[in-house]
Amino acid sequence: MNSLNSEAFTLFGQHILWSDMIGNLFGLAALALGWRRSLWTWPVQFLAGLILFGAFFGHLTGSAGKQAVVMVVALYGWWQWQRGKGRGEDGHIAVRFATWTERAAMLGAAAAGTVGVALLFKAYPTLSWDPWPDAYIFVGTVVAMYAQARGMVEFWFAWLLVDLVGVPLNFANGYAFSGFVYVIYGALVLWGMRDWWLRSRNGARPVLEGAPA
């Protein structure tokens, strides 16, 4: 992993690491695969998390921890989509809007989780340079991936909210390529949101809501 943490090139005065670049390109590919409702979104996301874990480990422990959680949630998403594979009319995972109860639960978990993680980061300053925004991104990413695993259109809204903080935080911490990729994420999220929204309105029956495997 040492070679992956070496500098690839300099862009606008920012030093781009190989691990930062490769990990985020895999993350971008995973998001595109999620848009297409491909099961491969999850192993690609796992690989992105593994590479970025190596990029952050040792100097941004909180960010490395986030990637470890991302890998766990990617495994959960793979399991969920395997169970629901073929539920949509086109042979892919069906998508739906979350119920109001699910939305309230995700918002509550995001709020409580952000406060809890931020307080942890503040108690152990070596975990993060920016406790509150880092905690927000950490928890927001987990909530977004959970919603994706459950086939919820709200997954895209959660990613947009993560982007709003992720772009400036990555630039501030010297991860310029991550910042640029988050900008591209924003455009991809808007397209993906439209696609999932339309599919949820086109009669796709609910998926992963108490249905047997």
UniProtKB/TrEMBL annotation:
One protein family per Pfam: NMN_transporter
Cellular compartment(s): Cell membrane
Key words, A-Z: Cell membrane, Membrane, Transmembrane, Transmembrane helix, Transport
Keyword Kinase: no
Transmembrane domains' residue ranges: 12-34, 46-79, 104-124, 136-162, 174-193
Signal peptide residue numbers: none
Membrane topology: Multi-pass membrane protein
Entry keyword annotation includes Cell membrane: yes
Assigned protein family: Belongs to the nicotinamide ribonucleoside (NR) uptake permease (TC 4.B.1) family.
Protein name: Nicotinamide mononucleotide transporter family protein
